[in-house]
Amino acid sequence: MPTLFLTGATGAVGAAIRRHYLSNGWSVAGFSHSDDGFSQEGYRFWSMNASDEAAVEQTFSIASRELGAPRALIATVGGVRSWKTVEETPLEDFRALFELNLVTFFLTAKHAFRLMQEEGTVVSIGARPPDAKTSGYAASKAGVIALTQVLAEEGKSRRINANCIVPTIIRTKANEEWGDPADFEKWTKPEDIAALCFFLSSEAGKAVNGAVIRMPNRL
22: domain range? Predict the structure, then answer.
């Protein structure tokens, strides 16, 4: 039974991904800062600060012993802060977004790679083309895309693929709170992201490596 390591497991996208993998016979090790109480055979949860390297290394090691080495890592940790122009953005906000979006991916990919055997998959979540007032978010997510492509090159000798999915607005309850209901059907569903992740980590997706896969849905 293959094992998925899933960061951001309790978010809307993470929850959809864990359901999809569990329903297809995988074990899932879920990592997040808080537990949402989800329970199902084959699933284990660990509370983890993904920006703390010692915590990532220790928690991943425990999860690997209990559920098996990861066959795939899917990194969904990320977020945004208030929408401000470059001139208006405080340095601490800019740095915080790099910590949240890029550093967490770097650390989890680093330690998942060390645990993976001679085959595996890493999937990250990037961002659509930059908009105004998104400097920290856009720059840090561009770093996620670049780091994914570095991993794709470094993983070739071990048959470890790395790809980045770039959705537009994701249809989550949080986004529906500010969005126009007329647009909801145009947004990317978490379940569609989960299905693409599963394809990339399956035998059918083994030829896809270093790709930036956009999911614009109907926007």
Answer: 3-215
CATH number, position 178: 3.40.50.720
Q: What is the pLDDT of residues 207-219, one digit of tens each?
A: 999 999 999 988 7
Q: What is the dihedral of CA 14, 20, 26, 28, to 10 degrees?
A: 20
3-state secondary structure string across the chain: CCEEEEECCCCHHHHHHHHHHHHCCCEEEEEECCCCCCCCCCEEEEECCCCCHHHHHHHHHHHHHHHCCCCEEEECCCCCCCCECCCCCCHHHHHHHHHHHHHHHHHHHHHHHHHCCCCEEEEEECCCCCCCCEHHHHHHHHHHHHHHHHHHHHCHHHCEEEEEEEECCECCHHHHCCCCHHHHHHCECHHHHHHHHHHHCCHHHCCCCCCEEEECCCC
Quick check: 103 and 54 in contact, CB under 8 A?
Answer: no
Q: What would the two tokens of residue 108 be?
A: 């989890």
Over the stretch 101-113, which tens digit does the pLDDT of each residue have? 999 999 999 999 9
CB 162 within 8 A of CB 152: yes
- Segment 123-135, tens digit of pLDDT: 999 987 778 888 9
How many separate domains does the chain show? Answer: 1
The string of pLDDT tens digits covering residues 165-190 is 999 889 989 888 888 999 999 999 99
